[in-house]
Amino acid sequence: MSKKTAPLLACALLAGGALRAESSDFPLAINLPTAGRMQYWDIGLAFTHRFVTPVKDHGKDVYGLDGYTYPGLGFAFGIKPIKGLNILIYRTADNKTFTFGFQQQILDRDLVRMAFRAERFDEVVPQTTTPFGRVGLTGGTFQLPTEFFLGDSVVLSLVPTYITRTTTTDTILPVPPGATPNTTPNKSGVFNVGVGLRGEITEKFSVVAEYYPRPSKFKNAAPGGLTDGTTYQNGFAAGVSYRTFKHKFTLMGTNTTGTTGNQVLSGDYGGGPRPTSQWSIGFNVIRVF
What we know:
Blueprint: H1 5-21, E1 43-51, E2 69-78, E3 85-92, E4 97-108, E5 112-123, E6 128-130, E7 133-135, E8 138-143, E9 146-150, E10 154-163, E11 171-172, E12 185-186, E13 190-200, E14 205-212, E15 235-244, E16 247-254, H2 261-264, E17 280-288
């Protein structure tokens, strides 16, 4: 290698590393937001798909793949003049929910990064009361996705979340049979903290898991219409991601069919997450332009 070639090659490698460091990262794991960001004027597209029919005992239905599904389509837009700011738009079929908001990255360090996310959600179906609560709601979701980098390949994520309105807001929560009846309406919104874990297996493959705790107010409450002693459940999602050039594919199993912040972290959406054994299949496809 000549003396002139070596400096040029070094500069090219450094430039390539800088470009990778500044590459866009769609701020989504499975259902929880990450603290990543779309750079410059880049656009991110996310297609989500959740099968409703549980895998258990349904081999004749191809383990749920023959059943109903909830697809969703969303975009994240980078805003070049304001570093770390993304505009978010998403629409999913369950209750025809439309969300619009923004996410601003407020911390980006070697071991931790953090963002603030605010969204308005509108359920476009006609407002009515079902056995599990009210649908056709409008509300807001405020989140603080925070990621801790544990070494080179493991990321722990905490997502404190406040949801202003849920399906059981302004209603009296039912209780399991034999329990003391509840006479106080559930007036307030819900605070919850989602937990995520991502671990790289190779440069392209990684495992990802999320946990959606049951809010404390639902600990002794029963989803409407259920009289078998069932109470609201904790939610989870876990799967495998494959990343290739500007694409990320994630296949998971989950006991919640929701995808938005108010759906997976409210604890009571559609009667809440199903029992752990009743998990179903879902997938995400993300493309960065």
